[in-house]
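Sample intake — RNB domain-containing protein
Collected from: Oikopleura dioica
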Amino acid sequence: DEVEAGLKTGDFLKSALRISSNYQNAFVSDPNGGSDLFIQGRKDQNRALPNDIVAYKIKPKEAWVTRKTGETQRTAEVVAVLDSKSNKRCAGVFAENMLSGVHSVDLLFVPCDNRLPRMLIAKSALAEDMAKKIKEIISRKIIFEAKIIEWEEGAQNARAVLTNEIGDPEDLQVQMDAILIDKSIDTRDWETFDVDDELPGKEWTITDEQVAKRRDFRNECVFTIDPATARDLDDALHVKRLDDNVYEVGVHIADVAFFVKPGGKIDKVASERCTSTYMPDRVVPMLPRRLCEELCSLNPLVERYSFSVVFKLDAEGNYLEEPWYGRGLIKSCVKFSYENAQHFIENPEEENIDESDFPEVLNGYSLETIRHCVLMLDMLSKKLREKRVANGCIRIEQPKIGFSWDEATKTPNGFFPYIRKDAHMMIEDFMLLANIAVAEKIERHFPDRAFLRQHPPPNQEKITEVVEELRKHGINIDHTSSRDLARSLEKVTQEVFFQSALSLLTVKTMQLAKYICTNDVEDRYDYRHYALAVPLYTHFTSPIRRYADLVVHRQLAAAIGWDESFETPAETLTEQAESCNERKLQAKLAGEDGSDVYLWCMIKRITKDSEFIMDGVVTGLVEYGLEILLHETGFTLRIYYGEMLATKYSIFEKNGYKAVAITWAKDNKPLGRDSVTNTPNKSRPGEALGTTDYAYFTPVRVSVVAGRDPGRLDGKLLPPAYLS
């Protein structure tokens, strides 16, 4: 009651708690739009866990802190957890040091996720065989799953019980299992759920009743374009020219809503998972594989139910009439890969095509027909893209990598960057077109309950800081609108290292896009999607892997007068939107952490025999060191002055921004650290090789090594090549 009263009066505020990797520090947002507030120490976190929704109060001014920039930052303390977002389960290992005193009867459990509290596990609770092997378990750092059962007020450590042994940390699969546990990803196999009665049998086929009700696209040249290894094909296209300047484009999406009924057992699990999770070694599907890969997947030469949007466009990508929305019936004639489509885009006039390089085209169509369709789609997509860019659409490219494998050891032996080519952008353009069109339709029909995708504008305080910092480097950025920001970024040099640093800097100012129910947003203007520069947007095109799209399919079915009503109340949609936002974020983080661990494993293997040198760029001067972005991978690491092969470092200002001068040592010995304070020495005796200045955007070379913990990379900054 006291907390509720405090929230009503404004004495307490509400926010999600963000705990940093240095678990002592945390932050909360100001719902009134001010800068973030700092929560210093576990005590003021008041036993809240990462992402918990908390009530907090702002501390008196005398307790505020001064940032390195000289600015004052407000501080706060958590008064209550309003909504716990953690399932209180985590992966971790036992600490090597034994506890003494009152806790000598316990073992200290250290979570893999540094943001979580250390935990006490009673020795008496261990199984007998485990108790006998505990020293070996500790020395080998065997990973376990634990669950918090109690955290007393004022206690430094929580109390937990072991729930499962995950395994040997040398096993990459074990590392992936640990990440999935830490991100609260439900990995239970669908076979453990009793859902067979909700799945059609193996002999299922389309029915005459559905054929009579649906628009028939089976005779159209419908095809899919996906990654070569994709098995869950949830979108397909058809295109044809109706007249000299008139084109019909059909976007056909798997009709998952036909099979997954609201309130059913499959729907309940899917609504909790909210998304499929993609790891380097596996996919954790949102839906049963019978649906993902068979009944809903738009595989070639099989009749499938679709939810379709059909556009009539001119050659400039303009609407000629309102799109047609409805349920359809399709039969794809080929599963094309992005590489197949890209070949046609890059070779539009090619003659004597070697058909053996492409999959077989079925359903009475030829490879030449597909080539013609791809080129039409490419032409239209480029016009659509031009229009979006002119409207102020902004896209910030960030590196994404994949891995090659050693088949014998099942470990990564190389990596490659994912490069977005015209074929990828072509499919994206038509998915965006359909998503925007569906958003407009459901918002008209459900103005107070539409399930949309909102992207707020950048954090004004952060982007103002970035713009000021860039100005010091001679870069002028206008952030008045997304169009102004996009045009400013276009004018900046296209050098890879520079673009990587600029992208990272810009991304840090952006807020996350999120699902909303329109009932929760007072001003319709705030439905906007900032990055896409459109007033309305939603997700419709991936219902096999995103629950939000399934909600939107149900709303669209009601909006077009199909025989289903949509009665879900706004309050339930709000809860589902929040769940989708949280699960989508955790799935994304799990995939990124998995990629980091695979990169760590690959570099660990390579550096046993040789150096692994990567190009990078300075993205910040941190306390006693540099932050470096490895632009091929998007990985950021910190290199400290004490470990640099130098005789001296000195911080100075240049044109208003901070820089550091590193004097490289001829003897190739590190600068070293003070034996008392452990801070880097300012200088040491030794002959100098030369001095180099480093600041934001300075390109560097780094000798990268695998750190002690999985997923962590360390590096040695190398002197410029001209000094070698």
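Post-analysis note: The mean pLDDT is 93.
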